[in-house]
Amino acid sequence: MNYYIVIPAHNEEALISLTLESLISQTLLPKKIVIVNDNSTDETASVVLAFAKEHPYITLVEKKSSAIHLPGSKVIQAFNTGLETLDQEYDIIMKADADLIFPANYLETLTKHFHSDPTIGMVGGFCYIEKNGDWILENLTDKDHIRGALKAYRKETFKQIGGLKAQMGWDTVDELLCKFYYWKVVTDNSLKVKHLKPTGANYNKTARFKQGEAFYTLGYGFLITAIASAKLSFMKKKPLLFFDYIQGFWKAKSSKKPLMVTEEQALFIRNYRLKKMKEKIL
Q: Does the pLDDT value for residue 203 go beyond 80?
């Protein structure tokens, strides 16, 4: 299987060498790696170019955008910039963050999953963060969800879901649309990926409102948004985030912000979410 990997990077000179080192050491090498240098003010580009000199399948793409770190839109705009430079000769397209260390068998293990069942559309491992010298699971989502830091899509799946949407919630709507189109999403807990910067470390107040906005644009409706907001703020151990999320939801609803999905897909998503919630309660 041909893997194309796109890595958005903003001021990652300290970490991106570790990510690239782990990718060029894979037991199954990727065919292409594109790093999108998104408005960096450090030596990210120099680090990448040094790797590209030794490994021709690595390329650097420059992108100029706002330095404000808002989750979703900025990173996917950068991803799409990288995607535009690639041909269609891939089997798997992967979006990766620039602060990860992948185990050496990561791509080989993904391939085994993809080969095992043609209806598997997405596969991923789990992110671990360092705490007091130990690497522990970065426990922000359910175990059946693939984190936005390391998404791998079968080409046909990626095309059918319409690629990645450049707004917060992109890494939830992709999986929901997979299910809408009857693709399977597989997580493998044997694949432990080191996440060197905890998620959300640089997010500001505006970004926190964006989470509630994302719940609205996913078509959740208020009940599911309230439950999801309570769960997420609890998992982040910041209960007051619940009010930011709810405020973001109502702001998006009152401004009639367009949904990321069609009405048919929104109905499917609400029914699917309610079904999953009932399963957990029962």
A: no
